[in-house]
Amino acid sequence: MAMVLSSGASGTASRRRLGAEIAPSVAYWFATPSVILLVGTLLLPIAVMVTMSFTDYELGALDYSFLGFDNYVTLWKDRSFWKALFNTIYYVALVVPASVVIGLLLAVMVNGLKQGRKLYQIAFFLPVTSTLIAMATVWKYLLHGTIGPVNHLLTAFGLPAMEFFGNPSLVMPALAIIGVWSLAGFNMVLFTAGLTAIPQELYEASAVDGIDGPIERFFTVTLPMLGPTTMFVIITTSITAFKVFDTVAVLTRGGPQGASDVLLYVNYLEGFQYMRIGLASAITVVFLGIILLLSLIQAKVLERKVHY
User: Fold this and answer.
1) Which of the pair, 4 or 45, is modelled with greater confidence?
2) Alpha carbon of 205 to those of 8, 200, 202, 211, 220: distances in Å?
3) CA 254 – CA 256 distance, rounded (Å)
4) Intra-chain end-to-end CA distance of the chain, in Å
């Protein structure tokens, strides 16, 4: 009897050892299609783009030659590139704080409603679901210098009419208004998810400590507990704002006088208008590097102020 038990135990141990040896190899086989897909659709195109940034390749050309860092030197000396970079940073500086703050305020107000909460959430989220190119045409009418309702409202209050898309000093703030309008609803949804995860016991404990006012509760309990959500919202909003292209291409095309040139629009012109793929690839590499650096800095700075 003891011999039977011993042989059974040794057989079970052998099967376990065999399963432990087979399991990793099976897992690798299951992961292989995903790895191939990742390399083929993400890593390989990035490698090709980086390689092209060191060449003089033009779209449709049969041959090309390597230039080293000449494309990057050209960008360094190009004033239009620096102007587009400044406009992009200016746009991000306008859009990110406004859309994050408005999204947070909308989430707090809507979350505090007892009736009609879903209706307001749908209404504020509609800009996210709409086609930005189509809505840009609507915004062009709203902010038109002569027939726009916004200018009619300004003149009704005795203020001068403004050429939002024709004035170099107003065109980027006008585009930023559209960007805030399109991003605030999505940020509201993210903040709403963060608000629902805050335990109600914290609010009850703060009330016991005498913190029962809405503003005090917001700064003492709500805002600190929304730290991880806020960090995520700021990083994703910054990346989205840096990728501004649609509104510029539809509304201003970089005008007036290059006042609304942004990195992706200049990249589009270099690659698909002037056919200089090598230079366009260099702009893309710089663009990706800036986004990566910005994300790392934001994550490093904000993580110190986040309480998990």
Assistant:
1) 45
2) 58, 9, 5, 9, 11
3) 7
4) 57
